From TrEMBL:
UniProt xrefs under InterPro entries: DNA_methylase_N6_adenine_CS (IPR002052), N5-glutamine_MTase (IPR050320), SAM-dependent_MTases_sf (IPR029063), Small_mtfrase_dom (IPR007848)
Domain Methyltransferase small: 242-358
Alphabetical list of Gene3D superfamilies matching this protein: Vaccinia Virus protein VP39 (3.40.50.150)
Pfam families linked to this entry: MTS
This protein's UniProt keywords: Methyltransferase, S-adenosyl-L-methionine, Transferase
GO biological process, one term: methylation
Molecular functions per Gene Ontology: nucleic acid binding; protein-glutamine N-methyltransferase activity
Originating species: Ralstonia solanacearum (Pseudomonas solanacearum)
Full protein name: Putative methyltransferase, Methylase of polypeptide chain release factors
Length: 420
């Protein structure tokens, strides 16, 4: 690649790359080679955030809807670039907060992002003075990396077609994440690749041995049960009853499905997230468990009491930086505290609450074991048993991981709780 400023002959302009810009943005329409309007580059006025930029070659101003699942605000400075830009220039601009709206070959954009990633990874990590310091520095570095790599932007037509050479069909992936397309928009390539990956996971599914080899198909934005140790804990713990169970924060519905497969006659799964509710319903229907498992929208507990209540809350008491992280981070342990504080009032006499929780937070210095036990006691509960398992995910054995020591010591537990 050569520098953007060194002008090279432009490739032939395809129909979708020519635009007519009107005085009124609502009247702005591109033109095809025969002059007929095709789609609008300038997004209509909406309540959604918008990205604005000026095409340096034509000196025309453009606006389009800005998409960011993490809620990242649209970049204030944008430059238009294609295959002529170098990775060094692109990375430098991204570090300076200058977004790059791509107009070249899509596959070259992917290669450029990989090259920018390599440059971002060259920066040596800061030395940590404690596990908590290592965690905070790691999150800070990951946030900065995401911000920098998120500066490479891709245009989307109203129907989610990418108007670039060699671009993949992302209509299904975008529709699953964003809903029906309504207007042209711009998204970071990094987020778009995440959508594509999530779409493939949704199609392929995750094999769950506890379901006899059946698969769970996670939707975009719903935590995938790729770490199977917590599922195995629920599959093996002795059931206090097979009459009824509540699954609090059901997500994909995997634990509700495991309980139903174990013979629990009726399971009620709850969640507040619309994506999770749709995902759980689809998975349970695919497994033929829709008459046995009910999925409802609720803040933690449904109405009534049950002899078994299961909850696998986010494991780390920290603030999530994106929607998908809400399954990992629980600010101030709100969900954990809410589950513990409400458990006794929703258990039938003699019933059990199963709390599935990793001690990763303890090894990072985010929470102590004494603090967890104090929460349990303050909620009027007692521990009647605990089953432990060591995680087997790749990071647990990766000595190069910044949090390796904490990951290597991590244990996931199923705490069996009863009302005192």
């Amino acid at each position: 690649m050569t520098e953007l400023r060194k002008r090279a002959p432009r490739p032939p302009i395809r129909a979708k790359e020519r635009y007519r810009v009107a005085d009124n943005p609502r009247d702005a329409l591109p033109i095809t080679r025969n002059g007929s309007p095709r789609f609008s580059l300038l997004a209509p006025v909406t309540d959604h955030p918008t990205l604005s930029w000026t095409d340096a070659e034509t000196a025309t101003a453009h606006t389009a809807r800005w998409r960011s699942e993490a809620g990242t605000p649209p970049p204030k400075r944008v430059t238009v670039a294609d295959d002529r830009i170098t990775a060094d220039t692109a990375y430098r601009q991204a570090c300076e907060g200058i977004a790059i709206l791509w107009r070249g070959d899509f596959q070259n954009a992917r290669q450029l992002l990989q090259a920018m990633s390599r440059r971002a990874d060259r920066k040596p990590p800061k030395a940590a003075t404690s596990p908590l310091d290592a965690f905070n520095l790691h999150r800070q570095a990951q946030s900065q990396r995401a911000r920098t790599l998120g500066m490479l932007l891709i245009p989307l037509d109203a129907d989610y077609t990418i108007p670039l050479r060699r671009a993949p069909d992302v209509h299904e992936a975008c529709t699953e994440a964003y809903g029906a397309g309504e207007e042209p928009s711009v998204v970071s390539l990094r987020e778009l690749l995440g959508l594509i990956g999530a779409h493939e996971w949704r199609k392929k599914g995750v094999d769950i041995p506890a379901l006899g080899g059946a698969r769970i198909h996670p939707h975009y934005g719903v935590f995938s049960p790729v770490r199977g140790e917590y599922v195995d804990l629920v599959a093996k713990a002795p059931l206090p009853s097979q009459a009824l169970a509540f699954d609090i924060g059901t997500g994909t519905g995997v634990l509700a499905a495991v309980l139903a497969k174990r013979g629990v006659k009726r399971v009620v799964g709850t969640d507040q997230d619309a994506r999770a509710l749709a995902c759980a319903h689809e998975n349970l229907t695919r497994l033929g468990l829709q008459s046995q498992v009910e999925v409802i929208e609720a803040d933690l507990f449904p109405e009534g009491r049950a002899p078994l209540i299961v909850c696998n809350p986010p494991w780390l008491p920290a603030r999530p930086s994106s929607p998908i992280e809400q399954a990992v981070y629980d600010p101030d342990s709100r969900m954990l505290r809410g589950f513990l504080d409400g458990l006794a009032a929703h258990l039938e006499p003699g019933g059990e609450g199963w709390l599935i929780l990793s001690d990763f937070a303890e090894h990072l210095g985010l929470r102590t074991r004494d603090a967890l036990l104090a929460m349990i006691e303050a909620a009027g509960l007692q521990v009647v048993g605990r089953d432990d398992v060591k995680p087997k995910h790749p990071k647990a054995s990766d000595a190069n991981d910044p949090l390796y020591q904490a990951r290597a010591a991590e244990v996931t537990s199923l705490w069996r709780l009863k009302a005192r």
